[in-house]
Structure formats: structure tokens, C-alpha cells
Amino acid sequence: MNDINNEVKVIPYEPQYKEAFKALNEEWIKTFFVMEPGDYKLLDHPEEEILNKGGHIAFAMLNGCVVGTCALVKTEDQPLTFELSKMAVSPKAQGKKLGYLLGSALIEKAKELKAEKVFLVTNSILVPAIRLYEKLGFKHIPVVNAGYDRVDVQMELDLRTLH
């Protein structure tokens, strides 16, 4: 059996994948929740709201198709802090460790940029996602300024302890 990592590539944002960024996220959000104004802001305007503000977006490619995505949204300059946001993997590509690959790639990017912290917000019903974030090293912290009605879990990764 082929090693899946030979087929999967993580690449940075390219404008032709803008629609995939929205479609992949809309698919999972609408499965469990409802789209909120904060979702539309980021998903409709990824260049303006994420990239131009110092953030990054990664895509997982499988056999030339976008099957996953995740964003690193800059939330603070001092100390440099990012939110790991909008992680989505197509149902047809789940179970291939794409979330882990995307999360790892963006954590590495945050380290390169000398960020102190990466945080994320999620919901307790998304157990596989929470397990993934724990595997990536995130720790549970109290929820503050969630920005979305669906949020009841907040996690943080202190990059200063990883240098």
C-alpha cells in the first residue's frame, strides 16, 4: 500500500482555490451549525481579511484536487498571536491525517514568524477535531472573546515552550 503522504501536498494559498476555501468550510459548518457573520467575513474575503493582515492559508492537495484547508489568522502583533481557524477536510478525504498535516504546517509557519501563541476556538461536539488539536499540542483554556455563538471550547499552543 502506498504511503498517503506521497499523494498529499500542503501548499500555500493561491487565488484559484478561493472558492474551495469557502466551500469546504461551509460544508462542515452547515452540517453541525449555522453560518455566522464571522464565517462569511473570512470565507468571502480571505485575501483582505486573512492574507493582507499577515495571516496564511494552506491547502491539502490530493491527486491535484483541494481536499482540505486551514488558516492562520493574525490576531495580535504584541505578542505575535495567531488563531488557527477554518480547518476543513472534505468528507471523501477524512481519515488520511490531512487535518494533522495542515495544522502542523501552519504551526511551523507561526514558529518561523516568531509567534508566541496560536489559539483556536471550537465546539465540544467536534470530538475528533478536539483530539486532533490535543495531538498537535494545544491545551484547553477558558473561552474568551470567542467571536462565534457555537464556541464552547478554546485551546492554546504556547510556542515559547517549543523553541
UniProtKB/TrEMBL annotation:
* Keywords carried by this UniProt record: Transferase
Highest taxon listed in the record's lineage:
Bacteria
Q: Where is the N-acetyltransferase domain?
A: 19-160
Q: Does the keyword Transferase apply?
A: yes
MF terms (GO), sorted A to Z: N-acetyltransferase activity
Q: Does the keyword field hold Iron-sulfur? A: no
Q: Which PANTHER family did the record assign?
A: GNAT FAMILY N-ACETYLTRANSFERASE, LD18367P
Q: What is this protein called?
A: MarR family transcriptional regulator
Give the organism the record lists.
Answer: Chryseobacterium gallinarum
